[in-house]
Amino acid sequence: MNKELRRVSYVVLAMFVALFLSTTYITAFQADALNADARNSRALLASYSAQRGPILVGGQAIAQSTPVDDQYEFQRTYSQPDLYAPVAGYYTLGQGSRGIEDAMNRYLTGNANSQFFDQVNSLLTGQDPEGATVNLTLDPTVQQAAYDALGSNSGSVVAMDPKTGKILAMVSKPSYDPNPLASHDRQTVTDAYDSLIADPSAPLQNRAIQGDLYAPGSTFKLITTAAALESGDYTPDSAFPNPSTLTLPGTSTNINNAEGGSCGGGETATIATALRLSCNIPMAQLGQALGAKALQEQAEKFGFGDESIGVPQAVTPSQFPIEDSKGQAINDATLMLQSFGQGSDRVTPLQMAMVSSAIANGGTEMNPTLIESVLNPDLSPVEDFSPSEYGKPISSQTAATMTDMMVQDVANGAASNARIDGVDVAGKTGTAENGPGEPYTLWFTGFAPAADPEVAVAVVVENGGGQGQSAFGNSVASPIAKKVLEAVLNK
Fold first, then answer.
1. What's the rounded Cα separation, in Å, for the pair 155 and 466?
2. Which residue among 65, 97, 156, 218 is the active-site one?
3. C-alpha distances in angstroms, 152 versus 10, 147, 381?
4. How far apart are CA 342 and CA 326, in angstroms?
5. CA distance to 150, 352, 456, 464, 468, per residue, from 438 (Å)
6. Separation of alpha carbons 109 and 42, rounded Å
7. Rg of the chain taking only CA atoms, in angstroms
8. Strand, coil or helix: what is 176?
9. At 267, is the pLDDT very low, low, confident or very high (cuts 50, 70, 90)?
10. What's the CA gap between 361 and 164, in Å, rounded?
11. Among the listed ranges 55-59, 323-327, 391-395, which one has the minimum average pLDDT value?
């Protein structure tokens, strides 16, 4: 009898241990995932009955919870919505969440694993639960300058501190008002959401980091140049034949330089001249000489294709494909187009800001981030959000060489409208074609001051800035970038 009791006791003990381990695992390691699950209505009701933490920019709340007299107790309100909505996002009843509201939800609700003891303390003391405060890296002056400079254009501006990766400005237009989405009336939320989804201008899309992405145009020449210098086989003075028109191999398609004619005159054109004057033909020849694999590897070092990049919102990976839709290796004609940012190249403005930041920071690329800090209600830090290194896509020597070349691009080349009196600005423009009759996509990316950079920027303007195929990156995007750079330098 005692033997049978012992067996039963062992089984009961084993079951107890299994239950204890499983509940501990769920509580300690799966809490974030369970709280974030859209099917968890209990978590949704709890999140509305608790005071959700604010989102701050420059010490001011751009999203906060205010008490209301209904079953949810608190309602989310957003200030300066058009300026910050693409970053802050929204938190709704029934339509999910977006932006920082989504990416930092577990902190804002106070349910992150790292906040477990704060939750226990609230239960023991009888205090009302309260979420953490999320401080963003955005600089309100720079954000406003970028928003104003972009004007009525559709597009995006990203400004970063190249030494830390902190994002100083992230603007996406068109924008939207998230306040109707925060309503406690579900029909109001649904109507507002459906209207935004149906809007052909796609205001819910944060163009800085997501969406269908953009052809980079001549801004991609920075990556082609970096690959050439990193190979050790080329210098800025390496030269290529300099025809005014070039027929792509195996096709009847001709490519030309942006300004027409040859690249600066002469029988040959150097890499430095091709970058300064933004010439397509020498860059196409350079890309063909380097090969698709070398260009892809260099692009990947800067972050192309990396699905893990987050700010903390997920960032759509930029693309430099070396296979076609059928899985076949791209031919030389396609490679030559992609070498100067056409063909199937696709990028986010954030990615191009990261490229400029890496060059500005001596070849070291920092992880981009919107998070300055996360603080508990007692102002204690929740977790460490210190700057971190993404990688070293180029050597310090290549970075210095490219900086000199980009300074010449602004001082005496195709990016002249980004000049700032008394400041050496390094930059590169882009004018991306989108098909016959389609408006151009206009670009600028660069940094300043060149000798000790404080800010790197990327600007993209859709639909030719309202000028179809009549405008260029230098005429539209460069002046926008100049205003953003000045906003940082004049602080």
1. 12
2. 218
3. 73, 9, 39
4. 19
5. 21, 23, 29, 9, 7
6. 13
7. 26
8. coil
9. very high
10. 9
11. 323-327
Q: Which residues of 305-343 are buried (b: 16+ CB within 10 A; e: fewer)?
A: eeeebebbbebbbbbbbbeeeeeeebebbbbbbbbbbbb
Nearest-angstrom CA–CA distance, 322 and 394: 21
Report the largest interatomic distance among the alpha carbons of the chain, rounded to a whole angstrom: 104
CA 195 to chain centre: 26
Average pLDDT, the chain: 91
Whole-structure pTM value? 0.89
Counting every residue written for the chain, the total comes to: 491
Indicate if the pLDDT at residue 451 is higher than 90. yes
218 is catalytic: yes
Question: Which amino acid is present at 159?
Answer: A
Question: CA 11, CA 17: separation in Å to the nearest integer?
Answer: 10
Estimate the share of the chain in helix, then strand, then coil, as percent rounded to the nearest 5: 40, 20, 40
- Name the pLDDT band for 110 (thresholds 50, 70, 90): confident
Q: What is the pLDDT of residue 491?
A: 82
